[in-house]
Design brief:
Keywords: Signal. The protein is mostly beta strands. Helices cover about 5% and strands about 55% of the residues. A hairpin with a 4-residue loop joins strand 21 and strand 22.
């Protein structure tokens, strides 16, 4: 992020008669990027309707498996463009308060491609840090952001990735981090059907992580403990169960190249893994919750061909252990994706790239479908 000039800070101070003295010890910073994505997709078994978010970026659970004719689609958007603001205020005790607000335009439901292509901004991160403490919305402590591969797709190796941003209170000391984070339960109805999203939790999600770093890279282990709860007075359902998960990840530097690895497994991982490809639990005939076991992982290698050219090859997978007597045969059993790209940066801030991805999704019934996607992107960071 770039620091705003002293002149700008002085102009800001003129508009803040109350508490303006704080600006004397505060640095302001900004950053972000503009990004254009052009995406051509081919689906072997069905299609995604106009406006479906799965056409903007890869979501494993949205690969069509309808068993009808193949289809193609072309989309262009600049919705991933991002802006962030930050402050750092030095205190008399030698410590500092830092804040960060970050927004983009992805995943917002209100927008159209008919005339103005307008989309509402959304909060990605809104956090403050003091000493070893973080308060606000940020990346989940259960996620190792540093292991996300460099892809043109919004996420990339989505199938086996832990990917969550949410409100939290986190304490970090060296390589250790512990946090309480916002809970949410996703449930499959008995026999299958539309996802139930329940906000009936009585306790937060608990996360602990340890990361060991060296000149060679880093390795990190995280654990998740949470409650899955659902109440429905109309159906006389009121049940809670405990869910657990583990995530092991590493980044290994090989000269300028790097190898990224992640493996995740647990009972009731649900929304934490693969963008909620499987729910955290399923209801049985008695209205009781049963956790769904799931495993996922990724491997990615990035190679620098020169100072300006680089490529990443990544593979990601997801597997769910569904009890089909409860979930039905239409629950997603597995997904995987393979992608390769070539990126060119004539200057560090400007990048052009092309990326090919092949993805597969299979249901418990054996019905499956494939997606082939070619993406071009242009990105300028500031």
């Amino acid at each position: 992020m770039k620091t705003i000039t002293t002149l700008t800070a002085l102009l800001a101070a003129c508009t803040l008669p109350v508490g303006a003295d704080a600006l004397n010890n505060t640095e302001f910073s900004y950053g972000g990027y503009i990004k254009l994505d052009a995406i051509a997709s081919q689906y072997s078994d069905g299609d995604l309707s106009s406006g479906n978010i799965g056409r903007d970026f890869y979501i494993p659970a949205l690969v069509p498996v309808e068993g009808v004719e193949e289809s193609t689609a072309f989309d262009m958007h600049a919705r991933q463009s991002r802006f962030k603001l930050g402050t750092k205020t030095s205190l008399d005790n030698g410590k500092a308060i830092t804040t960060r607000i970050e927004m983009d335009f992805m995943a917002t439901p209100n927008g159209d491609e008919r005339i103005s292509n307008s989309y509402s901004p959304r909060i990605r991160i809104a956090s403050l840090q003091y000493d070893n403490w973080l308060f606000g919305q940020s990346w989940s402590t259960f996620q190792d952001v540093a292991v996300l591969p460099e892809t043109l797709d919004f996420i990339g190796a989505t199938d086996g990735t832990i990917f969550v941003r949410q409100a939290m209170i986190r304490y970090t000391n060296g390589g250790f981090a512990i946090a309480i984070e916002n809970p949410e339960t996703t449930i499959t109805p008995f026999g299958g059907g539309g996802r139930i999203i329940a906000d009936d939790n009585a306790v937060p999600d608990f996360v602990a992580r340890y990361t060991y770093k060296g000149g060679w890279g880093h390795i990190s282990l995280a654990g998740l403990l949470r409650q899955l709860s659902y109440e429905d007075t109309a159906s006389n359902i009121d049940d809670s169960i405990t869910a657990v998960g583990l995530s092991l990840s590493a980044k290994i530097n090989i000269g300028r190249d790097d190898l990224k690895l992640m493996i995740n497994s647990g009972s009731g991982l649900g929304r934490y893994l693969g963008l909620n490809t499987a729910n955290g639990a399923v209801l049985d005939a008695n209205g009781e919750l049963e956790a769904i076991d799931a495993t996922g992982g990724l491997v990615a290698y990035r190679h620098w061909w020169s100072e300006q050219w680089r490529s990443s090859l990544s593979y990601s997978f997801f597997n769910a252990d569904n009890d089909t007597a409860l979930t039905g045969a239409n629950a997603t059993k597995m997904t995987n994706s393979l992608r390769i790209n070539a990126l060119y940066s004539p200057t560090p801030a400007l990048t052009f790239g092309v990326e090919y991805a092949k993805a597969t999704r299979e249901l418990e019934s054996g019905t499956d479908g494939d997606m082939d996607r070619l993406q071009f992107s242009a990105k300028y960071s500031f």
